[in-house]
């Protein structure tokens, strides 16, 4: 059972890590196209993607040590569903 818990933690850790990596990589890709694909654009793309990966690792480790990745992902996805459940319901007067 411990193997399954660690496997789920690893999957959630990767998901948390990928988020800033994709965000920074997208910004780097936009700058790459802005500079026309020359050396400055490539350097910015690599620099931003690497810094995004570093931020992702930092945040994923911080979350894993404080609350746990599975707990964090469950709470963040539950918050969206909780908002839907608290919407006012319309009463039908027949």
Features:
83% helix, mainly alpha, 0% strand, 94 residues
Structure, explained:
By secondary structure, this protein is an all-alpha fold. It has a domain at about 15-70. It has helices at about 1-35, 40-65, 70-85. The protein is flat and about 55 Å long. The N and C termini lie far apart (about 55 Å). The mean pLDDT is about 85.
Protein structure class: mainly alpha
* Poorly predicted segments: none
Percent strand equals under 5%
Q: What is the overall pLDDT average?
A: 86
Question: Count the helices. How many?
Answer: 3
Distance between the termini: 53 Å
Instruction: Bin the helical content.
Output: over 70%
Q: What's the number of extended β-strand segments?
A: 0
Q: Provide the gyration radius in Å.
A: 20 Å
Summarize the main sheet: none
Order of helices and strands: HHH
Overall outline: flat
Walk me through the topology.
Blueprint: H1 2-34, H2 39-66, H3 69-85
Helix pairs in contact: 1-2
In short:
This protein has 94 residues and is an all-alpha fold.
């Amino acid at each position: 059972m411990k193997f399954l818990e660690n496997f789920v933690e690893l999957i959630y850790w990767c998901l948390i890590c990928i988020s800033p990596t994709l965000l920074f990589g997208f910004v780097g890709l936009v700058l790459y196209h802005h500079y026309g694909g020359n050396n400055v654009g490539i350097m910015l793309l690599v620099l931003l993607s690497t810094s995004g990966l570093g931020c992702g690792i930092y945040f994923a480790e911080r979350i894993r040590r404080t609350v746990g990745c599975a707990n964090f992902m469950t709470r963040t996805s539950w918050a969206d569903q909780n908002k839907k459940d608290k919407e006012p319901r319309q009463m039908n007067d027949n």
